[in-house]
Amino acid sequence: MVSGSLTMLSDLPDRQAGFSLSPRIDQVGVEERASRFTKRSIKKESKLNGLKLVLNMIDLTTLEGKDTAGKVKQLCYKAMHPHDSYPGLPTVAAICVYPSMVKVAKKALGDSGIKIASVATAFPGGQAPKDVKIRDTKYAVHEGADEVDMVISRGKFHAGEYNFVFDEIAAIKEACGEARLKVILETGELGTFDKVRRASDIAMHAGADFIKTSTGKIAPAATMPVTLVMLEAIRDFYYKTGRMIGMKPAGGISKSKLALHYLVMVKEVLGEDWLNNHWFRFGASSLANDVLMQIMKEKTGVYQSANYFSVD
User: Are strands 246-248 and 210-212 parallel, antiparallel or unpaired?
Assistant: First the structure.
């Protein structure tokens, strides 16, 4: 499976350790191991606790050209009040919006403690000059973003210009100031697990606080095998540097059962220290409603109609 990374990277300078000798990935082994996590059964109280944890890890997201201030305000209300008939539920982790909507979200969320994440760097294509991406990032942070979700330049990555990708991530990290940086690899465009591992290593060594699978605009988006490869990269990086990196699978995770499988995988690969929303997130829009439906089922014994939940 994923092996040898500590030996291969240990003596290299930081700038090149991220991509010069990333380990090769056993595709069959990764897919087989990832499939095992889907066979776990979580029941009753453990399931309810897991569902609440999933809810608290969601970056509730709207990233459409038709987004309006009213839609963002409605999403912020939902973030703070997941289901009014069930008091005491945790809030989501963050609201994720375009830079132009950050100020709207900041005002709507007030002192709720919910983070504001903003995509930047010419999301989702990433096809813009570096200075434009830096200005995009600085604008989002100036408007009030606590976190920035950037996309890597996949064209440069596929052309083998790894130094360019590294330097661009490092420049965006500097532009973030105090905001945390999530680096989106767009794994559906990378093509192989080897490339996913290499891109993960580049991002972490360049200063990413999180690595993230996808923009949600490309299929396939997040998958369990891809996420496993990225979790293994985080584990190896932590063993080498002592630095924790967050993980955010995004896109394609709309059902509670699948989200719980992801939590099992995180616990077994990285341990319980990563099982909180400071280190693990789900990028999603429709997942929250399914989680709420399952929570109400655990509480009442029956499913509520989807009409009892807000439309995202």
Answer: parallel
Q: Contact, 256 vs 58, CB < 8 A?
A: no
Please tell me which residue, 119 or 21, carries the higher pLDDT value.
Answer: 119
Strand partners of residue 190:
none
**pTM of the full predicted structure?**
0.90
Give the DSSP H/E element, type plus range, for residue 102: helix 102-109
- Catalytic annotation on 212? yes
Question: What sign results for the dihedral spanned by CA atoms 36, 38, 41, 44?
Answer: positive
The question of whether 156 is a catalytic residue gets the answer no
- 149, 209, 236, 290: the catalytic one is 149
Residue 6 has pLDDT above 70, yes or no: no
Does the active-site annotation cover 248? yes
Q: Of 133, 209, 212, 290, which residue is the catalytic one?
A: 212
**Residue 144 near residue 102 (C-beta atoms within 8 A):** yes
What is the pLDDT confidence band of residue 312, given thresholds at 50, 70 and 90? Answer: low
What fold characterizes domain 5-299?
A: TIM Barrel (3.20.20)
Q: Which of 115, 133, 195, 248 is catalytic?
A: 248
